[in-house]
């Protein structure tokens, strides 16, 4: 069951990243975050009401609320990075968020093994190779790499926090609901401030009509991201976290394949090598 849930996580996260990246090329990233997560809130609220998950309320929901505060920052940074750079580079760098759960393990007394130390070195080399071509005029902007690393840290923090927020299936529904409500509140506040400063909230081409026409895609992105969080939590609860992390960290492969298939993206050799090393470093970190 662990392998099944974790592989489902990879598929869902990979497709959500691809969809989110496409949407932010036409619609402001904050709007994508708020609308997609708002749809997720409506669906999760219905699920919570039907299953009676409110009975699982407890102090552990503070972890879900914290994940909800970190999540919009990570998603905004990641979507902006996807809009700036090739998905085949950005997505593998985003998978480095697995470092955060490993760091939590260190605080709790665990010590990294040889493979984990090797993973750190490989991942750093991958980051340098993926971002370094910027100095020679390659299309990957340094800002895209920095935004992706910020997003990776946020994603890893969300994984660690949501893992502490529930121990049962119905409790997971409630935790995800609280997380997404916090996402919408935090993202909505950021969108309001952004608009007050003169930034657009709607696409320049089409305005509100364009957002309405994109609602199915926005719903898919929001619900796929929620489902991925849920399947990862289930994977971690049903078996070794290391196995779940390894398989779940394969989601950049899905994003890269989708970008290659639908967008015909082509990467320079050094960029592809850097992205591949970053992904390899992620696997080594998780398996060490």
Automatic annotation (TrEMBL):
Keyword Transcription among UniProt keywords: no
Annotated InterPro entries: EamA_dom, EmrE-like
Residue ranges of the TM segments: 6-23, 30-55, 61-82, 89-108, 114-132, 144-163, 169-193, 214-235, 241-263, 270-287
EamA domain sequence ranges: 3-130, 144-286
A GO cellular-component term linked to this record: membrane
Pfam family, one: EamA
Annotated keywords: Membrane, Transmembrane, Transmembrane helix
Family: Belongs to the EamA transporter family.
Protein name, per record: EamA domain-containing protein
